[in-house]
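[#protein-structures] MJ: dropping tRNA1(Val) (adenine(37)-N6)-methyltransferase here for a structure pass
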Amino acid sequence: MRHYALMQGACAMRISTDALFLGAWARTAHTAGQVLDVGTGTGILSLMLAQTYPSAMVTAIDIDDEAVRTAQDNFSRSPYSNRLTALSCDITAPELALPLRHYDLIVSNPPYYDGLQPATASLRQARHTEEGFAPHLLFRYLEPLVAPEPTLCLVTPVEALPLLRREAVLHRYNLKRLCGLYHHVGQPAIRLLTQWHRSDTPSAPCLSERLAIRTAQQRYTDEARDLLRPYLLDEYLD
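AK: finished. structure tokens for tRNA1(Val) (adenine(37)-N6)-methyltransferase:
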């Protein structure tokens, strides 16, 4: 990374393209004061948001103790260590470890798995969608933790959108931004980046975006490079 080293250790959830693009894309129209990173893994999203919002306090949570240790180690090596905290916590029972109740920006690269079940126990735990957690349930689990007008940014499979929309309505969130993430131009979207906001004021129409990651020559597109440049060293943007 451009401003800090990032170690993966024995963390089950490795650094992913999904997390990089969510961290770079998850900007809001307001200044974030309290940020919650749900399912932090290595802590990459928390580090990127601490860089984006210089005054934000960032809390990173994960159910995997090894992930929490890895994130803590990465945080301690960063220039933002005084604003970053990693905690072992299950978002389905956050009162066990999270005393704070007014997060205004929440980000998550939720656990999901396409295809066969993961081979290792730690990866099965990290990707526990089949066992009671799914991206759309975040709206419900976050209810006691958020500020009056919170923003939630997610990266999910494309097929998760209908359930996200349905659950968002129940909790008074509006879809503010939607970005289809593509491997290459002309191919189907592989992921969706979504930004949801809850407010009592009328909502503006959703801003729809598209982002292709690679050119036909397997290089980053100009758009992808511009988005990641504040975070990645130039040698990784070729």
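MJ: nice. Residues 19 and 109 are 6 Å apart (CA to CA).
AK: one more thing. The radius of gyration is 17 Å.
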